[in-house]
Design brief:
Elements (H helix, E strand, L loop, with lengths): L1 H24 L18 H5 L48 H7 L4 E5 H4 L7 H5 L5 E3 L9 E3 L7 E5 L2 E2 L14 E7 L13 E7 L7 E11 L2 E14 L3 E26 L5 E29 L2 E26 L8 E24 L2 E23 L5 E26 L4 E22 L2 E2 L7 E20 L2 E17 L5 E17 L7 E11 L3 H4 L21 E2 L8 E13 L5 E12 L2 E8 L8 E8 L3 E13 H4 L7 E13 L15 E10 L5 E10 L2 E6 L2 E5 L2 E13 L2 E8 L6 E9 L2 E9 L4 E9 L1
């Protein structure tokens, strides 16, 4: 009886909720004035963000809603006044980053445009290091490739507007003002793709507003006496009654110096005697000009229907020079050179466009069609000259290379709501074709190298995918997500000596569940069981080598200065994962979260150095190639919080805090311990940030410290990498001059701590090590933001 009553109560609650939700969506029959157009043209989120595993909004009846009493209308003696004129009332729930995170079936963190622009960063790579669970490669203050959960080398899926980026494209080429929001997904979904062992970072470019405005950003950044200016212009406007557009153009100039000191030691292990000692120093001067143009044009075709066009263009041109010296203190043979200089010119461009149609086929059935195409190109020319102590030229190497990558893709998706909206069934398909052409000519002292491989390599990659997913709300406090995705990739290339063909396909099942505690609590628990994979990159598969110039061919090299080449026999990595999270949503919009995860990886890919008999040299040479090593496991705990201090401490100053801390551990079975970790994964990383706006003043201040302690990684049984502690302290001050202008001053990398890395290889009874010291410097930026 109790279960029957509970079931009746549940059905009654669901029925009442449906009625209230329907009433909130329906306008009054006699409108006095047309409703005001919303600021953002809906459904803008669909245009750039693939809405992964998002549960429907659960409307709640207002507390003061009292049902009418029809019996009173016919009572004698009661005179009812004439009904007053009614006006249209539209109730629209304001979606925030916190509400989107809470309602999503998959774990998703939204970084808003306000957060992205807060510190006045010059590129998106600098923004990434403050995000929860994200580490950034390279030295402090310089940005680098982002990695979730510390897992570098392609474990993190990077998307722009829901699509994978072209090989060679870097997040650092995007300026923050081009970005609407950043979405972080800690687990793969069927719709966004399962090539996301560590997770997915989706960068959504600017979206149009339904109000006309012009935004101008003028910025200059100083580092070591070098100035790097940036200017951007963004315009939002309407096109008739149903169209909107955004146009954003960013122009930047970057001028910087990079110093690197190296120390090479070869030591006889039994005796401890140093057999080789060298010190080197190099200074690179780079001058780069860049342009980024993105726009979005969209038209509302009806309720829930939209057509959009989204082109973007990137262009970069740079000139760099690197002057170096090499000194040898101990050694049986003279140093290969005393001074060296390299000069390089490079251009990089991306042009791509995407069109998308959202169409409602019936009240419960929606269709989305998306198609895109474009080209990525890179052209590089470099000359390296090395001289002896007498000034005589001992080596001249010229490299002329260009790459063109042409791609197109089509995507289709059907969404069906059934059983009164309790189920949201989505099925879709994807097809992508990428053709890549590499031309490379390398001359060593005037003679061509690698003639066996030819000067041109043509590579084609075809990817197909099918998926289906179902979101189900069996209870107001419980939602589920079940999905499965099949994906197949074929790669083929033609060279003179070894054509490459590699095919792989995987079927990845996915399951998510969210339990929401009963009101008034806003806490919830998430659980996910997923399977993901990482496919070998084209560079990993193609066997054409890249030669080390410190020990040029045709002679031998050393284990710490290997050549690099691909491996056409690589298999994809597969990973089975579990994520469990507890989230506490505060009344003022803050959130506290703890997440634990584990990934069991098979066929782990790692670069292994081995001595080989090669066709490009008369002596055996050490070559670094990617190989499948076997099994590995990684796990960790991630804490992130975002809140106003008064939410936790009554009457406290109104500081806004952003805190995240991640602890990781990993183990590669085929490598001896104790530090047999996943490559590039630190043990700990975290951020502590806060900002404060002074009451009754136009001034705000804030700061953040990013901290990653040093760690060691045993790559294989005879190779060890060491990385020093990374710290980055930054602060900003904001003056809101008026409603249309702001002035922002930022000081980054205040502590200016150098990055020290070591590569240690044991060959027989000899230990060979190379230690690099990457210098960093403090930088100061000033930005004026104007809205017209």
């Amino acid at each position: 009886m109790q279960s029957r009553n509970a079931l009746s109560a549940m059905l009654t609650c669901l029925f009442a909720t449906t009625l209230v939700g329907h009433a909130a969506e329906t306008s009054a029959q006699i409108p006095a004035t047309p409703p005001a157009a919303p600021d953002t043209a809906p459904p803008a989120a669909d245009a750039g963000s693939p809405k992964p595993a998002t549960a429907p909004v659960r409307p709640q009846a207002p507390a003061n809603l009292v049902p009418a009493k029809p019996a009173e209308a016919g009572r004698p003696g009661i005179v009812r006044p004439a009904a007053p004129k009614t006006e249209t009332l539209e109730i629209t729930e304001k979606r925030t980053s916190t509400s989107e995170r809470r309602d999503s079936s998959a774990s998703k963190i939204i970084i808003t445009r306000e957060d992205i622009e807060q510190y006045g960063d010059s590129n998106l790579g600098d923004v990434m290091r403050r995000l929860p669970g994200v580490t950034v490669g390279g030295r402090p203050g310089r940005g680098g490739p982002p990695a979730m959960r510390g897992m570098g080398g392609g474990f993190t899926q990077i998307l722009i507007n829901g699509e994978r980026v072209s090989p060679g494209f870097s997040i650092e080429q995007i300026t923050p003002e081009m970005v609407e929001r950043i979405e972080i997904l800690r687990a793969p979904t069927a719709e966004t793709g399962t090539r996301a062992v560590a997770g997915t970072i989706n960068v959504v470019l600017r979206e149009p507003l339904r109000q006309r405005n012009n935004d101008i950003r003028l910025q200059v950044q100083e580092e070591r006496g070098k100035l790097s200016p940036n200017v951007s212009f963004s315009r939002n406007d309407t096109m008739g009654p149903t169209g909107t557009y955004n146009f954003t153009l960013s122009l930047n100039h970057n001028d910087q110096l990079t110093d690197t000191a190296t120390k090479t030691l070869y030591t006889d292990i039994p005796s401890g005697r140093v057999t080789l000692a060298q010190t080197g120093f190099g200074q690179q001067s780079e001058n780069r000009n860049g342009m980024f143009l993105t726009s979005r044009f969209q038209w509302r075709l009806g309720a829930g229907e939209m057509f959009s066009i989204q082109p973007f263009i990137v262009y970069n041109k740079s000139k760099s020079s690197n002057d170096g010296v090499l000194q040898q203190q101990i050694g049986l043979t003279p140093a290969p050179y005393a001074t060296g200089r390299s000069d390089a010119d490079s251009t990089f461009s991306v042009a791509r466009a995407m069109v998308m149609l959202n169409k409602r086929l019936s009240p419960d059935l929606r269709m989305e069609l998306r198609a895109g195409g474009g080209q990525f190109s890179s052209d590089n020319k470099s000359v390296l000259r090395e001289r002896s102590t007498s000034g005589a030229t001992v080596l001249t190497q010229t490299v002329d290379s260009d790459t063109k990558d042409r791609s197109w893709n089509v995507v289709g998706k059907l969404s069906y709501n059934w059983l009164d909206g309790k189920h949201n069934l989505v099925t879709g398909w994807e097809y992508e074709d990428v053709k890549r052409t590499d031309n490379n000519t390398t001359l060593l002292n005037g003679s061509p190298l690698l003639t066996d491989f030819g000067n041109q390599i043509n590579v084609e990659t075809v990817r197909k995918a099918l998926y289906v997913q179902n979101e189900w709300d069996p209870h107001p406090q419980f939602s589920t997500y079940l999905g499965v995705r099949w994906e197949g990739i074929k790669t083929k290339s033609k060279t003179l000596t070894s054509p490459v063909r590699n095919s792989s396909s995987v079927v990845n099942p996915l399951a998510f569940g969210v339990w929401r505690f009963a009101a008034p609590s806003r806490d919830q628990i998430r659980v996910s069981l997923t399977q993901s994979y990482r496919a070998p990159t084209t560079q990993n598969l193609v066997g054409r080598p890249s030669l080390n110039t410190l020990f040029p061919v045709p002679g031998p090299n050393t284990s710490v200065t290997p050549d690099r080449a691909g491996n056409p026999a690589l298999k994809p990595e597969l990973a089975n994962g579990i994520d469990i999270a507890y989230e506490d949503y505060l009344e003022g919009g803050g959130v506290l979260s703890v997440n634990v995860f584990t990934r069991h990886i098979s066929d782990l890919i790692r670069n292994v150095v081995a001595l080989e008999n090669v066709t490009w040299a008369t002596s055996p040479r050490f070559v670094s190639r990617p190989q499948n090593l076997g099994k590995a496991v990684t796990s960790g705990i991630e804490f992130d919080a975002r809140f106003r201090l008064p939410e936790l401490v009554k009457d406290a100053p109104a500081f806004n805090f952003r805190v995240n801390l991640s602890i990781y551990d990993s183990k590669v079975d085929s490598v001896p311990g104790p530090n047999n970790r996943i490559s590039e994964q630190p043990k700990i990383t975290g951020n502590l940030g806060a900002d404060y706006r002074f009451r009754a003043t136009p001034y705000s201040i804030g700061g953040n410290i990013n901290w990653t302690p040093g760690f060691e990684t045993q790559l294989v049984d005879n190779q060890l990498n060491k990385t020093s502690t990374k710290r980055n302290l930054e602060m900003y001050g904001l003056w809101t001059i008026n409603s249309q202008a702001k002035l922002r001053i930022t000081v980054a990398n205040i502590t200016a701590s150098d990055l020290i890395t070591s590569n240690i290889v044991t060959v027989g009874n000899e230990r060979q090590s190379v230690t690099s010291n990457g210098k960093t410097s403090r930088s100061i930026g000033v930005r004026l933001e104007v809205r017209l």
